[in-house]
Amino acid sequence: MSAANPANTSGHLLEIKDLEVGFRTSRGEVKALNGINFTMDAGETVAIVGESGSGKSTTAAAIINLLPGTGRISGGSVLFEGRDLAKATRSEMEEIRGKHIGYVPQDPMSNLNPVWSIGFQVEETIKANGLASGRKEVRAKAIEVLQQAGLADAEKRLRQFPHQFSGGMRQRVLIGIGLAAKPRLLIADEPTSALDVTVQRRILDHLASLTETDRTALLFITHDLGLAAERAEKLIVMYKGKIVEAGPSLEILQNPAHPYTQRLIAAAPSLASRRIQSAGVSLGGIEHDVASSAEGVDLIAAAETRVEQLGAAAGARPAIEVDNLTKVFKIRTGGLRSENFTAVDDVSFAIPKGTTMALVGESGSGKSTVAKLLLGLEQATSGTITIEGRRTEKLKGRELLALRRAMQPVFQDPYGSLDPLHNIGNTIAEPLRIHGVGDRASRRDRVTELLDQVSLPRVIAGRYPNELSGGQRQRVAIARALALKPDIVVLDEAVSALDVLVQAQILRLLADLQAELKLTYLFITHDLAVVRVIADNVAVMQRGKIVEAATTDEVFDNPREKYTRDLLDAIPGSGIKMGI
Amino acid sequence: MSSETPGAGTTRSANHYVADVEETPIASIDAVDLDEKPSNLWIDAWRDLRHRPMFWISSILILFIVFVAIFPTVFTQVDPRACDLAFSNAGPAAGHPLGYTKQGCDIYSRIVHGASTSLSVGIIVILLTTIAGVVFGALAGFFGGFVDTVLSRAGDIFFSIPYILAAVVIMSVFSENRNILVIALAIGAFAWPSTARVLRSEVLRVKNADFVMAAQATGLSRMGILFKHVLPNSIAPVIVVTTLSLGAAITAEATLSFLGVGLPGQTMSWGNDISQAQRDLRTDPQVLIYPSIALTTTVLSFILLGESLRDALDPKARALR
Question: How many C-alpha atoms does A77 have within 13 Å on its Cβ side?
Fold first, then answer.
């Protein structure tokens, strides 16, 4: 990007001074932002990085004065081209929004109105900002906007509705709407976090080229440190409503000065290089002990040496063997007709005991269907699944129950995977009750033991899920999965919904549990970066087929398939040289 | 915060700003906050209800009405059937605070003794609609497919007939032996589909939750999942609907009695009293007004209780206000 800035000699495009935002709650006003200071100039790309609750989205919303709920700017100023937006009236703000400051929201699925055509929604923006008048001109402008956003045959697409667009295409439309009036500043709040990595990459490339041509300043909000460093020249790290570190991206990444930034970089899986070393480390003394983990979790340091434990497992019978597995769904196409859809297409793999295999793929690749088939939640159309030497497709009653005992799942959504009406103790003990293991007292002891294993305080047994954070809920889900002492745990996107530090902590916990209990993991994920730190073997799925399968190092160092290479290249921050 | 502003100055070379570590201490990752009180849907709802005057007012009124219905003699010693035409439509007198009906019966006593009729009808109706609604709604939502189609269409048929109209027809057929049970059946037979619909949509929502899949993967049976996880998580809206429809059922009984197809004249009921009073409305309004007040208060109490429960159990409805 351009380095010099001949315009703006008098002042900055955006200057935020001592910005404070408070939210009114029943316990009085709670400060979400605590004195934020930063500036942006024309043509500059700045990224705000932080975990959920750090105040990064609140900062973006405060700039355009669209704070949700009871939020209000309680101090400081937002100077945009010298005007204080914090004191602007509603009509002044409406004039500025869209025309001078564009906004691209986070979720492309819910930010387009499903009952209006795409054309109508783009034209609405054009009319609201007075970019064109007269039906024909507005239409022509709408086509131009969509073409610039990178939509082929924009003219035809105008008449289509949001549900006919993929997530990536919707995000292009939203970017088009955000940039329609050629604003001086574009705020993009997690614009691609709901999209697949390859789509994310194309969208961000496009966004970068658009902002570069018009010298639009881009304020980029993200939770992904790698992405931020790759896309922005300036980085702002936020933590608990404050800026803890700010400066040139590479400089911060290579020489983080604030302990929080150091912790964040250490935990970012996209920047780590090797698998978490697990074996040989006793469970008691590591950082995942929540109470004392002030220093955080360091994936990179932990990954420096990889203990060779695979040699021992090589000769043994694999824990899971899947042969020519196929699953065909019937999709109703309206009326009585139906169409066949092959979700899983002739998939074969084997997982040696005590190892982790990652099944990687983008949305719709069939990876979660494989998990459901394995867990017996769906019936395979053809092919066989062999668990610990036993074929599973004909198992019934007692034998099926025994199989379920040996294999337990952990699901993605930490908010949906625990019954909100059962307390934590009962949730963890449920598998024991179903299988009639032990009496009340022994089950209670087992719950205590499991809580210790996942590093949760014992008193939590009497609590309910809605009091816990996402990471804590996921620990409970892991404890429940371990209750019956299974040999195999199927982790379906088990860390995808978590903040990066919590994610690193859970990954660490999983690695430790694997070493201690000799567990076999099938780790299903869309996130290749995570794969690198957790998996021994990788299988890459695309449209129901496994296109590449090898050890993790092989796949990362010498990907054979183009699709795998694309996926690897699309990991944000993968090209950044770290200072270690 | 330090006075140094990141990126300050007119040059583009952004300086590396680091906040004072003392001022931005970092907390431990994902520590468990044990100070909060235990909470789940029901505990939270109770905490919310506790602060609602409407909940207390309606609950106390309902408890009072129930008490009156069970022990009417605590409130009046006057026999509601001891009527004397000499007092026809007479005003209040000593021991008879609300005056007399056309038949010369004591209005206050008739209202006190009529409470049990209204309440019994209401309670029997909601017992019927809840049992039928929960069974059909849960089965339709949980098993889906053919079961759902059959049960939902059956519900639609009942739903498409206004239940007052249906009750009028049924009551006309049973003109010989009308009693509380018959009238409750007539109302309930056509009122259950709304309960079933509410529960069905909740069950559809809950049965796809991850915790249901987790229980399934552990080996819990279908029925175990339905009773342990799905029903408890979908019953809250049913409770709201039930409370609201209790008021509606009491109104329905009064309506049917008013129309002359409800309970037989000798049964003490607010509906019957209102029906008989309509002829003297212009000359002696008190005969109509007092039983009407009793009826309205009772129905309103249940509706207010239902609304409080709805607000407490559904935080979304609360946020919309």
Answer: 10
Average pLDDT, chain A: 83
Angle subtended by helix axes A135-148 and A167-179, to nearest 10? 120
How much is the pLDDT for A301? 46
pLDDT (mean) for A562-573: 84
Instruction: Say if residues A18 and A59 touch (Cβ distance below 8 Å).
Output: no
> Exposed, middle or buried: residue A447 (CB in 10 Å: 0-12, 13-18, 19+)?
buried
Contacts of B16 in chain A (CB under 8 A): 245-248, 251-252, 255, 257
Return d(Cα B67, Cα B278) in angstroms, integer: 29
Instruction: Nearest by CB to B5, from A37, A263, A416: name it.
Output: A37
- Angle (CA) B239-B242-B248 rounded to 5° is 155
Is A421 in contact with B5 (Cβ distance < 8 A)?
A: no
**Which B residues, 228 through 267, put their C-beta within 8 Å of a C-beta on chain A?**
229, 232-233
A268 pLDDT higher than 90 = no
The Cα B132–Cα B124 span in angstroms is 12
B291-313 pLDDT, tens digit per residue, is: 899 999 999 999 999 988 888 88
Can you list the domains of chain A with their CATH numbers? 304-388+487-570 (3.40.50.300), 416-486 (no CATH)
CA distance A109 to A577: 34
Multiple choice CATH, B53-318, 3.30.930.10, 3.30.360.10, 1.10.3720.10, 1.10.10.410: 1.10.3720.10
* Whole-angstrom distance, CA of residue B219 vs CA of residue B215: 6
Q: Distance between alpha carbon A475 and the CA centroid of its chain, in Å? A: 18
Structure pTM?
0.80
